[in-house]
Amino acid sequence: MDITLKAKSAIVEPNCYQMVEVKLNGTSLDGEIDVADIVNEYSASTLLDGIDNDDIIEHLENQGYTVTKD
Predict the structure, then answer these.
(1) Phi, psi for residue 10 in degrees, rounded to 5
(2) What pLDDT is stored for residue 69 in this prediction?
(3) CA distance linking residue 4 with residue 34, whole number of Å
(4) Arithmetic mean of pLDDT, 2-26
(5) What are the boundaries of each domain within the chain?
(6) Are 39 and 31 in contact (CB under 8 A)?
């Protein structure tokens, strides 16, 4: 994934995998990373596990689905 972010400060350190590790402070991802990039990077299960169940239910109900608990 290619990302350009604005941050109040950054720490850049080399790691053992011929890459650099970047630690950003004061950064907001909102509007900076395209949703498609996130969806392509992670599986649906991983994304859904990271979202509160109430938010998932609300989204489904707003799409016209009825959600019931067995």
Answers:
(1) -145, 145
(2) 86
(3) 11
(4) 87
(5) 1-32, 34-64
(6) no
Which amino acid is located at 1 in the chain?
M
42: left (phi over 0), alpha (psi -120 to 50) or beta: beta
Which pair of tokens denotes residue 25? 């402070």
Structure tokens at 70: 């067995």
Tokens of 2: 């290619």
Tokens (6 digits) for 1: 């994934």
**pTM, full prediction:** 0.58
- 15-65 pLDDT per residue, tens: 888 889 989 898 887 777 888 888 899 999 999 999 999 999 999 999 999
Angle formed at CA 22 by CA 19 and CA 24, multiple of 5 degrees: 170
